[in-house]
Amino acid sequence: MEFLLATSNQHKADEFNDLFKGSGLLIKAASSKLEVVEDGLSYFENARLKAEAYYKKFKVPVLSDDSGLNVIALPSELGIHSARFGEEGLNDKQRAELLLTKMKEQSFREAYFSCVLCFYLSPEEVFFFEGRMQGILAHEYRGSTGFGYDPIFIPNELIAENQTVAENEVWKSEHSHRASAVKMAIKFFKERNS
Question: pLDDT tens digits, residue range 43-61?
Answer without folding.
Answer: 999 999 999 999 999 999 9
